Amino acid sequence: MSNPVLVCALWRINAFAVLADALKRLMPCRGKLNKGGGLLQTVMALTPEVTFRQAVLFFTEADFVTEYTQHFLKPVCFSPVAGEHQSCPAESLLAYLQQGAQILCTVLLIKPGAWSHSLARILRQIELEKFTVVGMKHINLDPDVALGLLSSEVKQDPAVLEAHCTYLTSGTALVLCLQRPNAVKKLIDLLGPEDPKLAQALDPFFWRAQYGTSTVQNGFYGSKSYQIAVRDMKLFFPEGLCCTECQTLEEEEV
């Protein structure tokens, strides 16, 4: 080849799907891209395994150990006693790629009414999806805490906001800290859309389709990102969690 090419290693959540979608929109011959992905495969790696093989071909470990990767790959140990995070040495991105899916924690809040009627069934579904419960408590949410769990879209409508806050503070909620590989995304995928009717239309096995009755009484709150999961764990479980693995948190807050 007579001309040089630019090889980039990109990092973000859900990287493969996001990059593929961006390339399909930006590159010519979209029709060809959408049929089998042959052209797409020539410009990007399509799986983590291919990514690793190509990364070791073009880059060395030293290429990846930058301030950016050190921030995101730095183990952060959460001390229940001190109530703070202690940094440990950064690891190489290539070693990180070899590890595969990480065991992470996320927070599931079962809203008032939903857990008291269906707890055994919900716990069985949690077990079948290979989650481990590493924290559990009943809690009566304060209005300020309830407000912090709501999305910016909900907060734009005062009437809807009041309905959500009133419901969340109307009774006892059950808060669980769940652990498994890729826990945050897996839980969000299982919960489905926040509107139970939409969830039922898309897939009746979504948890909100099974236990929700309205956009307000939709059964569950789940941490929407790992950064939010870290926040939720510190909020609901300041005393710590019941397993050693969960005491090491990668706090990806910029």
From TrEMBL:
Coiled-coil positions are none
For the keyword Phosphoprotein, the answer is: no
Q: Which GO terms describe its molecular function?
A: kinase activity
The record's keywords, sorted A to Z, are: Kinase, Signal, Transferase
Residues annotated as domain Nucleoside diphosphate kinase-like: 103-243
Which SMART domains does this entry report, sorted A to Z?
NDK
Signal peptide location: 1-22
Kindly give the InterPro entries that the UniProt entry links to this protein: NDK-like_dom, NDK-like_dom_sf, TXND_domain-containing
* Top-rank taxon, per record: Eukaryota
UniProt similarity note: Belongs to the NDK family.
Q: What is this protein called?
A: NDK5 kinase
What is the organism of origin for this protein? Answer: Eurystomus gularis
